[in-house]
Design brief:
Layout lengths: L11 H12 L5 H17 L4 H19 L5 H20 L11 H8 L3 H12 L5 H24 L16 H16 L4 H25 L19 H20 L24 H17 L3 H14 L26 H25 L7 H12 L10 H11 L3 H7 L15 H18 L15 H7 L26
Length: 496
């Protein structure tokens, strides 16, 4: 849950007044002094957002410059301007160093829409000679204008459209293609492993940097909140970080599930391992190092990838028609795209391989596992449902479910609940139909562990009166008595 955000102003009218003092009349020094005093008073009571801290520092340097009239040394003014600009850039960029490897300040600034020459100015003021006073004055004027467009106006008018100049997220497919090429060479000739290892390590780091960029771009469509203005230590920062992580991993999994990545383009190479429902050993040797690397840095990655695979397997075929699919175009043909059975089976085998591998590795290190076999099986059972006969449409999902349930009695009982039901209307239901429903319900509840059912296959023989005494019913529900119950369609109430 996102907690309320603490701000120093009582209403937006106070912030709007400060904004008018700052940007109303360029020559009105008294108004800017009022703005500095108000910002200083706010800072004494609570932590200021980073934008207001930067505006206060820049205004103070500007007013000191105007009032000096040559009495203040140029070096002192240059240091004041430079410090304000350095703190503005650092305060925006540093919170977005989210990956396992550090990213360049220039790349993060480009995503935020910061002018590139500010980064050069920051570097010069920090590590080299201070820039001239003329350059620093121009930077301060431009920074105040940037704060107006990216903080004050979006905050004062949150419903107005916010035009972001952030760079779009670069495609991941070139990096995956480069990784695949390198691993193909090393798997064919093991003597090349040491030679290509530096390049493989570089690609892995680039993929991790891409994930960090994706975290920055996760909420780029929101408004200025992406710029991390609020630095007052909100308690929901962990939840926001988890949301960015999830969004970035989902984009990564989408790229991995494209043809040419985990699933080879050639249908001959999609052949599964003969001993188990898993990809061929050659394909596993190529992608296992990357998947293991991502799992070590992001423990939720296997669960995210399996979730993406299962969603794609059970979704309508039009949603997995490939990269050229357009949701806003209605095809004239009613048949729709033909199912790619080999693609689905290869994806399903990867999901089964991930579940088996994660379970075995978690046992070796005695670690808590986020990817549980029962959760994946229940998700598939719920999505497939009983009575659906879609042949090739969901063949991959059914094969995956069969592989997951194999050797697990409780899962096998739950899988049998997917046996097609006879086409019988509710008015023709017999006692055996009700018993079958009880069996399916019992097997599913036994898997998820909501109830302790010792023998779910045995139907209950209790009468309604005894069931009312021996069972806890959910709020709003109670069994009808033997004499008060009347047959009626579902959803229709028949009064006494």
């Amino acid at each position: 849950m996102r907690l309320p955000r603490r701000v120093p102003w009582e209403s937006l009218g106070e912030l709007e007044q400060v904004c008018s003092w700052i940007y109303g009349d360029e020559a009105d020094a008294d108004a800017k002094i009022h703005a500095v005093n108000r910002l200083a008073a706010w800072r004494a009571t609570t932590a200021l957002p980073h934008a207001l801290e930067s505006a206060l520092a820049l205004l103070t340097a500007t007013l000191t410059d105007r009032a000096s009239q040559g009495s203040t040394s140029r070096l002192s003014l240059r240091q004041s301007y430079a410090t304000a600009i350095i703190r503005l850039v650092n305060g925006l960029v540093d919170p977005l160093q989210l990956g396992a490897y550090a990213r360049s300040i220039a790349s993060i600034a480009a995503q935020l829409g910061l002018p590139a020459w500010w980064i050069e100015l920051r570097h010069a003021a920090t590590h080299e000679d201070l820039p001239s006073i003329e350059v620093l004055r121009e930077a301060a004027r431009e920074a105040m204008g940037w704060l107006l467009s990216n903080y004050f106006l979006p905050t004062l008018s949150p419903s107005a459209p916010f035009v972001s100049e952030k760079a779009s997220l670069r495609p991941l497919s070139p990096l995956l293609k480069q990784y695949k090429t390198l691993l193909k060479a090393t798997t064919r000739d093991a003597s090349l492993a040491s030679r290509y290892q530096p390049q493989i390590t570089k690609v892995l780091r680039e993929i991790e940097r891409w994930l960090a960029e994706a975290k920055v771009a996760a909420d780029a469509s929101v408004s200025a909140t992406t710029l991390e203005w609020d630095t007052d230590g909100r308690e929901d920062s962990t939840d926001e970080e988890d949301g960015r992580e999830k969004w970035a991993l989902e984009r990564l999994c989408d790229a991995l599930m494209e043809r040419g990545a985990l699933v080879p383009i050639s249908k001959k190479k999609r052949a599964l391992s003969g001993s188990s429902f898993a990809p061929s050993s050659t394909v596993v040797l190529i992608w296992d190092p990357l998947l293991t690397h991502l799992w070590n840095l992001h423990p939720s990655f296997p669960a995210a990838l399996v979730s993406g695979i299962t969603s794609r397997l059970v979704s309508p075929r039009s949603l997995t028609a490939g990269p050229g699919f357009r949701a806003d175009i209605v095809p004239l043909s009613a048949e729709g795209p033909k199912p790619d059975v080999s693609y689905d089976r290869c994806l399903a085998s990867w999901a089964n391989w991930l579940v088996e591998t994660c379970n075995s590795r978690a046992k070796d290190i005695n670690d808590d596992l986020e990817l549980k076999r029962e959760d994946v099986a229940v998700t598939l059972i719920t999505a497939l449902g009983p009575g659906r006969d879609d042949a090739d449409e969901r063949k991959g999902a059914r094969e995956l479910l069969s592989a997951l349930c194999s050797g697990h009695s409780n899962l096998e009982r739950a899988r049998k609940s997917l046996v097609a039901l006879k086409g019988t209307s509710s008015s023709e239901w017999q006692e055996q139909d009700m018993r079958g429903m009880h069996e399916r319900l019992g097997s599913l509840l036994a898997v998820v562990g909501d109830r302790d059912i010792s023998s779910p296959a045995t139907p209950s023989t209790d009468t309604p009166s005894t069931m009312a005494l021996s069972r806890e019913w959910p709020p709003g529900w109670c069994p009808a008595g033997e004499h008060s119950w009347k047959p009626c369609p579902l959803g229709v109430f028949v009064g006494p």
